[in-house]
Every structure is written in C-alpha cells, then in structure tokens.
Amino acid sequence: MSHLTSDEFRKYGHQVVDWIAQYLEEVESRPVLSQLEPGDVRDALPDAPPEDPEPFEAVMEDLNRVILPGITHWQSPNFFAYFPTNSSPTSILGEMLSAGLGVQGMLWATSPACTELETHMMDWLVDLLALPEKFRSETQGGGVIQDSASSATLCALLAAREQATSGASNESGAKGDLVAYSSSQAHSSIEKACLIAGIGRQMLRKIEVDEDFAMSSEALERAVRRDIESGLKPFFVCAAVGTTSSMAIDPIPEIAEICRKHGLWLHVDAAMAGTAALCPELRSMHRGIEQADSYTFNPHKWMFVNFDCNAFFVDDRQALLNALSILPEYLRNQATASGQVIDYRDWQISLGRRFRALKLWMVIRQHGREGLAQLVREHVQLATEFEAWIHDSEAFELVVPRQLNLVCFRHRRGNAFNEQLVERLNRDGRIYLTHTKLGDIYTLRMSIGQWQTKAEHIEQAWQLIQRTAEDLASETPTTTP
Ligand SMILES: *Cc1c(COP(=O)(O)O)cnc(C)c1O
C-alpha cells in the first residue's frame, strides 16, 4: 500500500480535527489523572508490528480504546497539578501547519521564513512582556525558541562556562574550580545542567531561602565570598522568578548586584511566571531583570502555545555562539558566510529544529496583547478567590501567601492527613492536584492556569476538597504533626 492519497488525507484530516474538537469539548468529564495501572497500555497492544497495512479507521478505534484511558488530561479544566502545559485550538492548528510544512530551520538558508518569523516573534515577546530592550534582535543580544526551559538553562550555563574560561573549558584542568549558585528551591533542571556541562552537582551551591522561600541574597554573598577565599571560581547564578514549588520570586536586584561585583553570569528562570508580564500590573516581579545576562520563560506553560515552545533571551549573543557554534563543511553556505543572517542551530544544542514560531505567531494574532493579558488576569483572579476561601476556612490554611496563579495550602490536621487527602482526591479523578514540601510542611498546590478553567471549576474543586477532607477526618480522628 502507498501513502495516503490527497483525498484520503483530506478525509482523515477532517476526521482528526473533528476528533480533537470533540475531545476538547468533552475532556472535562473524564477522570483527570489516568486511572490505569503500570503495564495496562502495553498489555492492550499487539506484541508484534503489523506485517501488512492496516486501515486508518482501525488506528482511530485503538486511539479511543487503548490510548485515551491511559491519558492524564492536561487539557482538562479540572487540571490543577504541577504547572499547566496549555494547548489551545489556535496553537494546535499552528502545530499542524508546522508538521505540514515539515521544514528544518537549522540554518537561515534551510527556510528563511522559519528563522525570520522566529526572530520577529522573539522581538514581539520583548514588546509583549516589556522585557529589556537589550534582548531585541537588533542589539548585541537576541532571542531564540528552545524546546524547553531546561535546554535554555543548559545553554546559558554553557555560554557562562565558556566566558569564564575564555573558551578553554574543554582543556584539561580549565574548569575544575567553577562554582554555580541557585536557591534551594530552584528547578531540578539547574542541577541537571551542571551535571551535563561538566560543572558537577557538588559544585552547585543551593543557597538558603527566606521565609517566603526566595533566595537569601545575604547567604548568596557569603557563599560566593567563601568560595573565592577557598580559591574556587564562582561564575554563574540562576535566579528564579516563580519557583516550581511555591512561585517564590528571588530578589533579582540584590542578586544582580552581587553578580556584577564578582563578575558572575546571571540567568533568570521565569519558566512559568514570565507569561504574567503580559499584564502591566504584574510586571513588578521582573524588577531587576535588565541586569540579567540571560532570561527564559515558557510560552508552552501559560501562554496557550502547546509544548514545545520556550523563549530564551541573551544580552550578548556572541557569548552563546562562542559556546555552541561549529561549522562543518556540509553546512557552509553563502548566506551564513555573508554574516547577514541568523543560523539558530548555533543558539541551541541540537542541529535540527522545528518551525515553532508559527504557532506562537498564530496564538499572538488570535488574541492580541490585550486578549492574552485578559486570559492571564482571569486565572490570577480565580486564584485570588481561592486564596480568600482558604483564608476564611477553619479546616484549611495557607502555607505561603498566593503568588500569581498558585495557591499553596494545607489542611490543619498535618502532613499525613494532607498526603491522604491528595491521594484520595486524585484517585476520585474529578480534579487533579499535586503537592510539594515547603520546609517540613506537606503542601497542596492549586495551580490555576488551564485554558478552559472557569470560575465554576474552581468552585466545584473547592467543594470537592472540603467534602473529601470532611470524609477523611471522620475516618481518621487523630491529628498528625
Ligand atoms: C517548568 C519549569 C522548568 C522546566 O521547564 P521545561 O520547559 O519543562 O524544561 C524550569 N524552571 C521552572 C521555574 C519551571 O517552572
């Protein structure tokens, strides 16, 4: 059998779009967390690949029968776990077009529109979020789309490593004494980047945090001084605007001052929170980022662009190129040689790259800045209401004050009780939330940012949480620490 004919492609293509539309309409009624046991999906699949062609219809049937039950529904309005990874109808269409074009954007010459639209979108993001002008493409700096914040942070770390060792990091002994810093609350991707970049996890200092779980700049200063006195070479700080546990915001101006004084690269990780800067009234969280050497946020979390789409900005693109560009013979071309174009392969780890700017462009045009800001504002408003309910509740309490769209709370009966509560809620399936530990406190996280979430979902969730807690309390009469 050959490939689908154009007519077949049209027919099945329309079916697939109809399937997705119906899925998104009905996703709310499905158990948010997949209720399957390990191995269930594989048990339902044939052991061997088909010898002969199978009809498209058979695959769609199996999609419903085998795959759907094994899905945790990130696109459900009742998804309050982790952070959102939003899709949205416009973004899905952008993704389809990108697949349809199927281009590789590794060089400008391999698809000029892929590169130039990306450059343009990165400049638009500078406008939309009111980011520092030095991140614009017409300056020494610029932006690039990465697959994830983890990759962006790794690239920042590599650029900083090369800068700190004058490009000699791969020579023996050149980087043995480099030290990186983040807060104890920083995302695990920092530690992973240190492992990959050969810095070593023992050379990442996890700086203590204050009562709001933000990095203590005094502790950072002390640690940097101590390392310098021991003959080590501090070179990199990753500060968070919106930590994953509790959305804590590190004091960027104070951290930047320390970085400037000691010549350290400052990378700001705003993977989740960055999108909030669409709203002028929320931009104070970005105070100090004009002093950052690099900055990253994920449109694929809260900006309604489906995974993957991370935005990464540097104020000195040469530092990044020094770390990542290699030009083998088979990639040489006139446009590259002319120096007039951007080749984004030099701004990332891999060579190949997808046309991700397309979905970003389409989502931005679908809503406009004001439309996007309004969507974010609604989520923050819903989180504010949820916070007020917790505040007024006798059974529950806030663990830290709400930041943006994340409410960290717990039942007053203590850790073991809260652990059971979240277990029972997720097994029930009507909502999905996850936990973290803040200090010693087992904390429930209500993360409100899914694109279909409305007031009614938050109200239902709160009712369910209270009812489930009451049931559980009646079964377990004692309070745990
Ligand atoms: C989600 C998140 C990350 C990781 O993002 P990926 O794109 O999945 O790599 C890193 N840092 C923070 C603060 C995050 O919220």
Key terms:
7-stranded mixed β-sheet; 4-stranded antiparallel β-sheet; 12% strand; Aspartate Aminotransferase, domain 2; alpha/beta; binds pyridoxal-5'-phosphate; 481 residues; dopa decarboxylase, N-terminal domain; Aspartate Aminotransferase, domain 1
Describe the model:
43% of the residues lie in helices and 12% in strands. The chain is α/β, with parallel strands linked by helices and 481 residues long. The protein has 3 domains: 6-30 and 34-71, dopa decarboxylase, N-terminal domain; 95-361, Aspartate Aminotransferase, domain 2, CATH 3.40.640; 368-475, Aspartate Aminotransferase, domain 1. The strands form 2 sheets. The chain has a 7-stranded mixed beta sheet with strand order 1-7-6-5-4-2-3, sandwiched between helices. A 4-stranded antiparallel beta sheet has the order 8-9-11-10. Helix 9 (252-262) links the parallel strand 4 and strand 5 (265-269). The longest helix is centred in the last third of the chain and has 36 residues, at 357-392. The model has no long low-confidence stretch (mean pLDDT 95). Bound molecules: pyridoxal-5'-phosphate. Pyridoxal-5'-phosphate binds at residues 83, 148-150, 187, 189, 240, 242-244, 269, 271-272, 298, 310. Pyridoxal-5'-phosphate (PLP) is lined by residues 83, 148-150, 187, 189, 240, 242-244, 269, 271-272, 298, 310.
